[in-house]
């Protein structure tokens, strides 16, 4: 789902059926990652972008200093693996951008793997993630597991060409931003122009990443356009379907 922040109705390209109110959807989007010593202090780490209600497994690691317990996602972060596993909002974008920048500072030459299972979300938050992916020096390997819809599919296509992948049973969906506005005619006109701006921008970038004609992208995104992993590969959204 794609949403854009505004004082009126949120611009939304939502994976849900319709917009029910004038307020943005409230999503519990992040959970803190903690790195713990076996007997003493806790050190807060980067947010994982996972819902706070999720139970996060712990991993115990043996070293010369004794045992250390990590939450699973902090441990994977050390392996340069990050996750987008929720709808996209500002909190998720802040967390993911911070992780990408941290990993670039750790090693600007080594690939970062971004796993995506997301129905989409905020346009502006998604573009913050997108711009960071394009600006950092490491290649970003994108991997779809489950569902990459709307902004999730857009970010999937934004990985480094040749390194965009999907698990075989995943589903990928693209569509145009949807939304609405209320108020005076001038207010509605302003919001309509903003929706069209986002629509044209996303279509242009999708055309660049997929090597599809802009007219085809515009036509295909008029409605929800679902693809299998193999169809997404043929479309140019990804480069490889992962198999054993």
From TrEMBL:
Keywords: Cytoplasm, Hydrolase, Protease, Serine protease. The active site is at 150 (nucleophile), 175. It catalyses: Hydrolysis of proteins to small peptides in the presence of ATP and magnesium. alpha-casein is the usual test substrate. In the absence of ATP, only oligopeptides shorter than five residues are hydrolyzed (such as succinyl-Leu-Tyr-|-NHMec, and Leu-Tyr-Leu-|-Tyr-Trp, in which cleavage of the -Tyr-|-Leu- and -Tyr-|-Trp bonds also occurs). It is an enzyme of class 3 (hydrolase). It comes from the Bacteria. Transmembrane segments: none annotated. GO terms for cellular component: cytoplasm; endopeptidase Clp complex. One of its GO terms (biological process) is protein quality control for misfolded or incompletely synthesized proteins. It is found in: Cytoplasm. Its EC number is 3.4.21.92. GO terms for molecular function: ATP-dependent peptidase activity; ATPase binding; serine-type endopeptidase activity. Cleaves peptides in various proteins in a process that requires ATP hydrolysis. Has a chymotrypsin-like activity. Plays a major role in the degradation of misfolded proteins. Belongs to the peptidase S14 family. PANTHER family: ATP-DEPENDENT CLP PROTEASE PROTEOLYTIC SUBUNIT. Fourteen ClpP subunits assemble into 2 heptameric rings which stack back to back to give a disk-like structure with a central cavity, resembling the structure of eukaryotic proteasomes. NCBIfam families: clpP, PRK00277.1, PRK12553.1. This is ATP-dependent Clp protease proteolytic subunit. It comes from Planktothricoides raciborskii GIHE-MW2.
């Amino acid at each position: 789902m794609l949403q854009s922040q505004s004082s009126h109705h949120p611009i939304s390209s939502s994976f849900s059926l319709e917009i029910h109110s004038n307020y943005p959807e409230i999503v519990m989007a992040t959970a803190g990652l903690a790195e713990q010593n076996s007997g003493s202090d806790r050190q807060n780490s980067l947010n994982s972008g996972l819902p706070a209600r999720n139970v996060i497994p712990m991993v115990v690691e043996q070293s010369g200093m004794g045992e250390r317990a990590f939450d699973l996602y902090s441990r994977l972060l050390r392996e340069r693996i990050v996750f987008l596993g929720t709808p996209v909002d500002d909190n998720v974008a802040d967390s993911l951008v911070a992780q990408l920048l941290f990993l670039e500072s750790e090693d600007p030459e080594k690939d970062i793997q971004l796993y995506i299972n997301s129905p989409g979300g905020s346009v502006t938050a998604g573009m913050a993630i997108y711009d960071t992916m394009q600006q950092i020096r490491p290649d970003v390997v994108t991997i779809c597991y489950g569902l990459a819809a709307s902004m999730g599919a857009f970010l999937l296509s934004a990985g480094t060409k040749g390194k965009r992948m999907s698990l075989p049973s995943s589903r990928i969906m693209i569509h145009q931003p949807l939304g609405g506005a209320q108020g005076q005619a001038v207010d509605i006109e302003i919001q309509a122009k903003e929706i069209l701006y986002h629509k044209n921008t996303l279509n242009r970038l999708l055309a660049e990443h997929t090597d599809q004609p802009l007219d085809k992208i515009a036509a295909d995104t008029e409605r929800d356009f679902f693809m299998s992993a193999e169809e997404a590969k043929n479309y140019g959204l990804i480069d490889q379907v992962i198999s054993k």
